[in-house]
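Sequence and fold
=================
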Amino acid sequence: MRTTRVAAATAAALLLGGCTLQEAPHADSTVVSAASQKAARTWNPDTYKAPAVDSTPDDAFEASAFRGLAILTRTRDSLPDYVGGNLNCVSCHLDEGRRANAAPLIGVTARYPRYIDRVDAVVTIEDRVNYCMTRSLAGTKLPNESREMADIVAYLTVISRGVPVGEHVKGEGLKAMPKDTPRDSTRGHALFRDNCARCHGTNGLGIGVVPALWGAKSYSIGASMARVERAASFIRYNMPFDRPGSLTDQQAFDIAAYIDSMTRPDLPGKENDWPQGNPPPDTPYETKGHLAGWAPRVIPRATNLAGAIVPPPSSVVNRRR
Protein backbone atom coordinates (compact mmCIF):
# COMPACT_ATOMS: atom_id res chain seq x y z
CA MET A 1 0.00 0.00 0.00
CA ARG A 2 2.81 2.40 0.89
CA THR A 3 4.55 1.63 -2.42
CA THR A 4 1.37 2.50 -4.32
CA ARG A 5 1.01 5.84 -2.50
CA VAL A 6 4.66 6.72 -3.20
CA ALA A 7 4.27 5.88 -6.88
CA ALA A 8 1.12 7.97 -7.13
CA ALA A 9 2.77 10.92 -5.41
CA THR A 10 5.75 10.69 -7.70
CA ALA A 11 3.53 10.61 -10.78
CA ALA A 12 1.63 13.67 -9.56
CA ALA A 13 4.85 15.55 -8.94
CA LEU A 14 6.05 14.79 -12.44
CA LEU A 15 2.79 15.99 -13.97
CA LEU A 16 2.69 19.18 -11.94
CA GLY A 17 6.32 19.95 -12.65
CA GLY A 18 5.88 19.44 -16.38
CA CYS A 19 8.65 16.81 -16.42
CA THR A 20 9.04 14.91 -19.69
CA LEU A 21 10.65 11.58 -20.44
CA GLN A 22 13.55 13.41 -22.04
CA GLU A 23 14.10 15.49 -18.92
CA ALA A 24 13.85 12.65 -16.42
CA PRO A 25 17.30 11.21 -15.73
CA HIS A 26 17.76 7.45 -15.90
CA ALA A 27 20.14 5.53 -13.70
CA ASP A 28 21.35 3.42 -16.59
CA SER A 29 22.23 6.50 -18.70
CA THR A 30 24.25 7.88 -15.79
CA VAL A 31 26.15 4.63 -15.53
CA VAL A 32 26.84 4.56 -19.26
CA SER A 33 28.00 8.19 -19.17
CA ALA A 34 30.35 7.48 -16.25
CA ALA A 35 31.71 4.42 -17.98
CA SER A 36 32.31 6.39 -21.19
CA GLN A 37 34.12 9.15 -19.29
CA LYS A 38 36.30 6.60 -17.51
CA ALA A 39 37.14 4.90 -20.83
CA ALA A 40 38.06 8.25 -22.36
CA ARG A 41 40.37 9.05 -19.44
CA THR A 42 42.20 5.72 -19.68
CA TRP A 43 42.24 5.51 -23.48
CA ASN A 44 45.69 5.46 -25.08
CA PRO A 45 45.84 4.55 -28.78
CA ASP A 46 49.60 3.95 -28.53
CA THR A 47 49.21 1.11 -26.04
CA TYR A 48 45.78 -0.25 -26.98
CA LYS A 49 45.67 -3.87 -28.08
CA ALA A 50 42.49 -5.36 -29.47
CA PRO A 51 41.08 -8.35 -27.59
CA ALA A 52 41.58 -11.84 -28.97
CA VAL A 53 38.62 -13.78 -30.34
CA ASP A 54 37.98 -16.94 -28.36
CA SER A 55 38.38 -20.05 -30.53
CA THR A 56 36.45 -22.06 -27.92
CA PRO A 57 33.40 -19.83 -27.42
CA ASP A 58 31.45 -20.10 -24.18
CA ASP A 59 28.23 -18.41 -25.28
CA ALA A 60 26.19 -17.46 -28.32
CA PHE A 61 27.85 -14.07 -28.78
CA GLU A 62 31.39 -15.51 -28.70
CA ALA A 63 30.29 -18.17 -31.18
CA SER A 64 28.89 -15.46 -33.46
CA ALA A 65 32.14 -13.45 -33.28
CA PHE A 66 34.16 -16.57 -34.09
CA ARG A 67 31.94 -17.27 -37.10
CA GLY A 68 32.45 -13.63 -38.14
CA LEU A 69 36.21 -14.09 -38.08
CA ALA A 70 35.81 -17.21 -40.23
CA ILE A 71 33.76 -15.24 -42.75
CA LEU A 72 36.34 -12.46 -42.97
CA THR A 73 39.23 -14.89 -43.49
CA ARG A 74 37.38 -17.17 -45.95
CA THR A 75 34.84 -14.80 -47.44
CA ARG A 76 34.64 -16.27 -50.91
CA ASP A 77 34.17 -19.78 -49.50
CA SER A 78 31.75 -18.70 -46.75
CA LEU A 79 29.59 -16.48 -48.98
CA PRO A 80 29.90 -17.88 -52.53
CA ASP A 81 26.58 -16.34 -53.57
CA TYR A 82 27.69 -12.85 -52.50
CA VAL A 83 31.37 -12.61 -53.47
CA GLY A 84 32.09 -11.84 -57.11
CA GLY A 85 35.86 -12.28 -57.16
CA ASN A 86 38.51 -14.37 -55.45
CA LEU A 87 39.35 -11.87 -52.71
CA ASN A 88 38.57 -12.24 -49.01
CA CYS A 89 38.04 -9.41 -46.53
CA VAL A 90 41.51 -10.06 -45.13
CA SER A 91 43.06 -9.58 -48.57
CA CYS A 92 43.01 -5.87 -47.73
CA HIS A 93 42.36 -5.90 -43.96
CA LEU A 94 45.52 -7.85 -43.16
CA ASP A 95 46.17 -9.97 -40.07
CA GLU A 96 42.47 -10.52 -39.42
CA GLY A 97 41.88 -6.76 -39.62
CA ARG A 98 44.50 -5.95 -36.98
CA ARG A 99 47.52 -4.68 -38.94
CA ALA A 100 48.24 -0.96 -38.73
CA ASN A 101 48.25 0.96 -42.02
CA ALA A 102 46.42 -1.90 -43.74
CA ALA A 103 42.90 -0.55 -43.21
CA PRO A 104 42.60 -2.16 -39.76
CA LEU A 105 39.13 -3.00 -38.49
CA ILE A 106 40.04 -2.43 -34.85
CA GLY A 107 37.76 0.13 -33.22
CA VAL A 108 35.48 0.38 -36.24
CA THR A 109 32.25 -0.07 -34.28
CA ALA A 110 33.25 2.88 -32.11
CA ARG A 111 33.21 5.08 -35.22
CA TYR A 112 29.89 4.05 -36.76
CA PRO A 113 27.33 5.30 -37.60
CA ARG A 114 29.30 8.04 -39.35
CA TYR A 115 29.03 10.46 -42.25
CA ILE A 116 30.60 9.37 -45.55
CA ASP A 117 30.88 12.00 -48.24
CA ARG A 118 30.94 9.40 -51.02
CA VAL A 119 27.23 8.79 -50.34
CA ASP A 120 26.52 12.12 -48.57
CA ALA A 121 24.83 10.31 -45.70
CA VAL A 122 25.34 8.96 -42.22
CA VAL A 123 25.69 5.21 -42.69
CA THR A 124 25.56 2.24 -40.35
CA ILE A 125 28.27 -0.35 -39.85
CA GLU A 126 26.11 -2.83 -41.81
CA ASP A 127 26.05 -0.52 -44.83
CA ARG A 128 29.80 -0.02 -44.53
CA VAL A 129 30.31 -3.81 -44.60
CA ASN A 130 28.16 -3.96 -47.71
CA TYR A 131 30.25 -1.29 -49.43
CA CYS A 132 33.12 -3.74 -49.13
CA MET A 133 30.94 -6.59 -50.40
CA THR A 134 29.84 -4.69 -53.51
CA ARG A 135 32.95 -2.67 -54.25
CA SER A 136 36.08 -4.43 -53.02
CA LEU A 137 34.72 -7.96 -53.41
CA ALA A 138 32.84 -7.06 -56.61
CA GLY A 139 29.82 -8.93 -55.24
CA THR A 140 26.36 -8.26 -53.88
CA LYS A 141 25.12 -6.89 -50.59
CA LEU A 142 24.27 -9.08 -47.62
CA PRO A 143 20.85 -8.67 -46.02
CA ASN A 144 21.37 -6.46 -42.97
CA GLU A 145 19.26 -8.81 -40.86
CA SER A 146 21.10 -11.98 -41.92
CA ARG A 147 23.00 -14.15 -39.46
CA GLU A 148 26.15 -13.69 -41.52
CA MET A 149 25.96 -9.91 -41.18
CA ALA A 150 25.34 -10.27 -37.45
CA ASP A 151 28.39 -12.55 -37.19
CA ILE A 152 30.62 -10.04 -39.00
CA VAL A 153 29.44 -7.18 -36.79
CA ALA A 154 29.94 -9.35 -33.68
CA TYR A 155 33.58 -9.90 -34.66
CA LEU A 156 34.08 -6.19 -35.32
CA THR A 157 32.53 -5.44 -31.93
CA VAL A 158 34.92 -7.77 -30.11
CA ILE A 159 38.04 -6.24 -31.68
CA SER A 160 36.67 -2.76 -30.90
CA ARG A 161 36.16 -3.33 -27.18
CA GLY A 162 37.85 -0.69 -25.08
CA VAL A 163 37.88 1.95 -27.83
CA PRO A 164 35.76 4.93 -26.70
CA VAL A 165 33.02 6.09 -29.03
CA GLY A 166 34.40 8.38 -31.70
CA GLU A 167 38.06 7.67 -30.94
CA HIS A 168 40.65 6.55 -33.46
CA VAL A 169 43.27 3.81 -33.30
CA LYS A 170 46.93 3.96 -34.19
CA GLY A 171 47.56 3.12 -37.83
CA GLU A 172 43.90 3.55 -38.76
CA GLY A 173 43.03 3.38 -42.45
CA LEU A 174 45.78 3.75 -45.04
CA LYS A 175 48.54 6.34 -44.67
CA ALA A 176 48.24 9.38 -46.90
CA MET A 177 50.86 9.38 -49.64
CA PRO A 178 52.81 12.43 -50.85
CA LYS A 179 50.64 14.56 -53.11
CA ASP A 180 51.45 15.10 -56.78
CA THR A 181 53.84 12.15 -56.89
CA PRO A 182 54.41 11.29 -60.57
CA ARG A 183 53.48 7.80 -61.63
CA ASP A 184 54.61 5.69 -64.56
CA SER A 185 52.77 2.47 -65.38
CA THR A 186 55.56 1.38 -67.73
CA ARG A 187 58.05 1.45 -64.86
CA GLY A 188 55.32 -0.12 -62.75
CA HIS A 189 55.07 -3.08 -65.11
CA ALA A 190 58.75 -3.90 -64.64
CA LEU A 191 58.50 -3.43 -60.87
CA PHE A 192 55.41 -5.65 -60.77
CA ARG A 193 57.26 -8.41 -62.60
CA ASP A 194 60.18 -8.22 -60.16
CA ASN A 195 58.23 -7.84 -56.90
CA CYS A 196 54.65 -9.02 -57.29
CA ALA A 197 54.31 -11.60 -60.06
CA ARG A 198 55.73 -14.49 -58.03
CA CYS A 199 52.57 -14.40 -55.86
CA HIS A 200 49.94 -12.70 -58.00
CA GLY A 201 51.08 -14.20 -61.32
CA THR A 202 52.43 -12.42 -64.36
CA ASN A 203 48.84 -12.09 -65.57
CA GLY A 204 47.73 -10.56 -62.24
CA LEU A 205 45.01 -13.17 -61.74
CA GLY A 206 46.43 -14.56 -58.51
CA ILE A 207 47.96 -17.91 -57.63
CA GLY A 208 46.22 -20.26 -55.20
CA VAL A 209 44.90 -18.25 -52.25
CA VAL A 210 46.65 -15.07 -53.42
CA PRO A 211 44.00 -12.72 -54.85
CA ALA A 212 43.67 -11.34 -58.35
CA LEU A 213 44.73 -7.74 -58.88
CA TRP A 214 42.82 -7.27 -62.11
CA GLY A 215 40.43 -9.15 -64.34
CA ALA A 216 36.94 -10.49 -63.66
CA LYS A 217 37.84 -11.88 -60.21
CA SER A 218 39.47 -8.75 -58.80
CA TYR A 219 38.15 -5.67 -57.01
CA SER A 220 35.77 -3.36 -58.86
CA ILE A 221 36.42 0.10 -60.23
CA GLY A 222 34.45 1.48 -57.26
CA ALA A 223 36.82 0.05 -54.65
CA SER A 224 39.22 2.32 -52.80
CA MET A 225 42.07 0.20 -54.18
CA ALA A 226 41.08 1.31 -57.68
CA ARG A 227 42.38 4.76 -56.75
CA VAL A 228 46.13 4.92 -57.40
CA GLU A 229 46.99 6.86 -54.24
CA ARG A 230 45.14 4.39 -52.00
CA ALA A 231 46.65 1.38 -53.74
CA ALA A 232 50.10 2.96 -53.55
CA SER A 233 49.78 3.39 -49.79
CA PHE A 234 48.76 -0.24 -49.30
CA ILE A 235 51.66 -1.41 -51.46
CA ARG A 236 54.18 0.94 -49.84
CA TYR A 237 53.56 -0.26 -46.28
CA ASN A 238 52.41 -3.84 -46.76
CA MET A 239 53.91 -5.31 -49.91
CA PRO A 240 55.66 -7.45 -51.01
CA PHE A 241 54.05 -9.67 -48.40
CA ASP A 242 57.38 -11.08 -47.19
CA ARG A 243 59.20 -7.72 -47.43
CA PRO A 244 56.72 -5.02 -46.37
CA GLY A 245 58.10 -1.50 -46.42
CA SER A 246 60.96 -2.35 -48.79
CA LEU A 247 59.59 -0.30 -51.71
CA THR A 248 59.93 3.46 -52.05
CA ASP A 249 57.02 5.87 -52.43
CA GLN A 250 57.82 6.25 -56.11
CA GLN A 251 57.98 2.50 -56.71
CA ALA A 252 54.68 2.00 -54.92
CA PHE A 253 53.01 4.68 -57.06
CA ASP A 254 54.37 3.16 -60.27
CA ILE A 255 53.18 -0.34 -59.37
CA ALA A 256 49.77 1.00 -58.34
CA ALA A 257 49.47 2.92 -61.61
CA TYR A 258 50.20 -0.27 -63.55
CA ILE A 259 47.75 -2.43 -61.57
CA ASP A 260 44.93 0.11 -61.61
CA SER A 261 45.27 0.65 -65.36
CA MET A 262 44.11 -2.92 -65.96
CA THR A 263 40.62 -4.21 -66.71
CA ARG A 264 38.37 -4.89 -63.72
CA PRO A 265 34.69 -5.34 -62.79
CA ASP A 266 32.35 -2.41 -63.14
CA LEU A 267 30.28 -0.99 -60.27
CA PRO A 268 26.64 -0.20 -61.15
CA GLY A 269 25.57 3.22 -59.93
CA LYS A 270 29.10 4.56 -59.48
CA GLU A 271 28.13 7.78 -61.26
CA ASN A 272 26.05 8.67 -58.19
CA ASP A 273 29.05 8.71 -55.85
CA TRP A 274 29.93 12.05 -54.20
CA PRO A 275 26.54 13.64 -54.98
CA GLN A 276 27.79 16.94 -53.52
CA GLY A 277 30.79 16.87 -55.85
CA ASN A 278 34.49 17.17 -54.98
CA PRO A 279 35.58 13.51 -55.17
CA PRO A 280 39.26 12.57 -54.73
CA PRO A 281 41.08 13.70 -57.87
CA ASP A 282 42.25 10.18 -58.75
CA THR A 283 38.73 8.73 -58.79
CA PRO A 284 38.86 6.62 -61.99
CA TYR A 285 35.29 7.28 -63.15
CA GLU A 286 32.99 10.20 -63.82
CA THR A 287 30.88 11.62 -61.00
CA LYS A 288 29.16 14.94 -60.39
CA GLY A 289 31.50 17.67 -61.61
CA HIS A 290 34.38 15.21 -62.10
CA LEU A 291 35.86 13.89 -65.33
CA ALA A 292 38.26 11.02 -64.82
CA GLY A 293 41.73 11.78 -66.12
CA TRP A 294 42.08 8.13 -66.97
CA ALA A 295 39.89 5.07 -66.55
CA PRO A 296 40.51 1.36 -66.93
CA ARG A 297 38.32 -0.84 -69.08
CA VAL A 298 35.52 -2.36 -67.06
CA ILE A 299 33.73 -5.70 -67.20
CA PRO A 300 29.95 -5.17 -66.91
CA ARG A 301 28.13 -7.02 -64.14
CA ALA A 302 26.17 -9.80 -65.81
CA THR A 303 23.57 -10.52 -63.11
CA ASN A 304 21.85 -8.99 -60.07
CA LEU A 305 22.72 -5.37 -60.79
CA ALA A 306 20.41 -4.19 -58.01
CA GLY A 307 22.26 -6.38 -55.50
CA ALA A 308 25.50 -4.57 -56.34
CA ILE A 309 24.11 -1.22 -55.18
CA VAL A 310 23.87 -0.22 -51.51
CA PRO A 311 21.09 2.40 -51.49
CA PRO A 312 21.44 5.52 -49.34
CA PRO A 313 19.06 5.91 -46.39
CA SER A 314 15.49 6.61 -47.45
CA SER A 315 15.55 10.01 -45.75
CA VAL A 316 18.46 11.01 -47.97
CA VAL A 317 16.66 9.76 -51.07
CA ASN A 318 13.58 11.80 -50.15
CA ARG A 319 15.69 14.89 -49.49
CA ARG A 320 17.26 14.68 -52.95
CA ARG A 321 13.95 14.47 -54.78
Observations:
- The domain at 60-173 is CATH 1.10.760.10 (Cytochrome Bc1 Complex; Chain D, domain 2).
- The chain has two domains: 60-173, 185-303.
